[in-house]
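> example.struct
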């Protein structure tokens, strides 16, 4: 397992930003039953973890998207992470709402970045990829060049991988579902039997344990 993924998995589990409950599943807003709950916004409360996330996202950008000259965060979860990354890189910053405001200026993109900027998008969590790619669409419609996306975490759903491929967006993440569940089993947070349940869920999360 990649050492950075392992370090982040340990941190996420340690601050309970990720909870694994294969025998007592959560219900997501979508209605899906899930053995995992992720709230990466918790990382903001812990300076050491917050700094880790910032530095690792910056490292990913330096390695994979060195041509970026502006940063965009996806509202609401990645607004703060995007600010931290933009500050570290000393680049212009904006954030993208799920849809235009229904009052005031009606903005969907908040903030000013250069016309035609090469934008790296920052996201906190990738599930199906739908909301993340809506932000990409908004930026492209505004005339910006989206060169890729970095995120803290992904569930690695095939539907998301297909959606990013279809949209022509390269996605790089710090950590993922496989690394987290494998580490959780390694330290005894879950049993090996639980690990098999978690693998089954990932195959078809929309139908898993639906009543």
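> example.seq
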């Amino acid at each position: 397992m990649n050492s950075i993924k392992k370090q982040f998995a340990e941190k996420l589990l340690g601050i309970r930003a990720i909870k694994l409950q294969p025998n007592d599943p959560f219900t997501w807003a979508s209605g899906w039953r899930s053995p995992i709950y992720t709230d990466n916004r918790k990382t903001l409360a812990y300076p050491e973890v917050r700094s880790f996330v910032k530095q690792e996202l910056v490292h990913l950008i330096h390695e994979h998207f060195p041509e970026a000259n502006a940063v965009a965060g996806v509202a609401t979860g990645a607004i703060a992470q995007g600010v931290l990354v933009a500050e570290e890189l000393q680049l212009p910053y904006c954030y993208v709402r799920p849809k235009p405001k229904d009052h005031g200026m009606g903005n969907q993109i908040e903030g000013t970045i250069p016309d035609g900027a090469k934008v790296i998008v920052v996201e906190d969590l990738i599930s199906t990829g739908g909301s993340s790619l809506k932000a990409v669409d908004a930026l492209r419609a505004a005339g910006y060049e989206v060169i890729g996306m970095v995120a803290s975490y992904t569930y690695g759903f095939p539907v998301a991988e297909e959606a990013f491929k279809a949209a022509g967006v390269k996605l790089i993440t710090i950590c993922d579902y496989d690394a987290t569940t494998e580490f959780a089993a390694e330290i005894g947070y879950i049993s090996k039997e639980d690990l098999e349940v978690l693998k089954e869920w990932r195959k078809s999360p929309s139908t898993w344990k639906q009543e």
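> remarks
Strands lie at 18-20, 26-27, 33-34, 36-38, 70-74, 93-96, 109-110, 118-126, 145-154, 171-176.
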